[in-house]
Amino acid sequence: MWAPVRAGPARSGRARGQGSAHVSQAPSRARHGSIGFWYRLAVVLLRPLLTVLTRRDWRGAEHIPAEGGFVAVVNHVSHVDPLTFAHFLYLNGRLPRYLGKEVLFRLFFVGRVLRGAKQIPVYRESGDASKAFSAAVAAVRAGECVAIYPEATLTRDPGLWPMVGKTGAARVALETGAPVIPVAQWGPQELLPPYTKRPHFFPLKTMHVWAGPPVDLDDVRDRPVDAALLHEVTERIMAAVTALLEEIRGEQAPAERFDPKQQGLPVTGDPRRPRGDDPRRTA
Q: Rounded mean pLDDT of the chain?
């Protein structure tokens, strides 16, 4: 189920950039002011590695707001793709604040880095789940970039297409009125396939990160927020991300979006592992 999925030939008009470094970077964007010790430490450690060990096909930097709060929504194909997406945002002048599993914040060194870099813990399936929403809203209103994986976990789709989304990104967008920037990634799953621990550095893999224009929500912002609206906005978000991924891969996504619940798969953890094998499930 989790064998690497390779893209077919690109559609005419937009090349995949395989084997090249097409880097879309907005001019005069790489400025961050004071980013704090822990964020800077992560940049110093990781940026040189990503630069040397990956190729880059970055597009759509002009859609990343130069200032002001916004929500970035992105598909999730590998445990390494938070780093590749952060690389793209950092070199375009924005520092992402991710919503991440609370269990990561309990790890000694990783937790210190995440807390020091002001990342946002998500308390899954608990009474504290609303804390992540409140923190994300506050960050957007403070002018920050909040990065959300709307699927809330690595995709379980057999072809690694975006799945049915959760409503968290829609909630934050409607509460703040901030723009929602869709982003698609492809390539991290070749560097580190889902639910594996051994990266494949060579030959060098191309990290495709394509950002699109803001999701059009102007017609719904004045409507009362209810379950129907949240699901409508979430589907618009997932459709925008999927359309970008179709362009990258040169393929068409399945007509019906994959729903892990309908397939009887666990909400979190490696879907290949029988339930109960490992209580420390990871997304």
A: 86
By residue range, what is the domain housing residue 79?
56-249
Residue 249 to residues 6, 100, 208, 222, 252: CA-CA distances in angstroms?
8, 27, 10, 36, 8
Smallest CA-to-CA distance from 88 within 206, 237, 201 is with: 206
Domains of the chain: total: 1
pLDDT one-digit tens code per residue, 79-91: 999 999 999 999 9
- Report the alpha-carbon angle 106-99-268, nearest 5: 75
Q: What's the CATH code of the domain at 156?
A: 3.40.1130.10
* % of the chain surpassing 70 pLDDT: 83
Q: Say whether pLDDT at 2 is over 60.
A: no
Does some domain include residue 282?
no
pLDDT value for 81: 97
DSSP 86: H
DSSP string, 207-246: EEEEE-PPP--TTTTTSPP-HHHHHHHHHHHHHHHHHHHH
- Predicted TM-score (pTM) of this structure: 0.86
Between CA 256 and CA 164 the distance in angstroms is 9
Residues 6+ apart with CB under 8 A from 67: 143
Q: Does the residue 125 lie in any domain?
A: yes
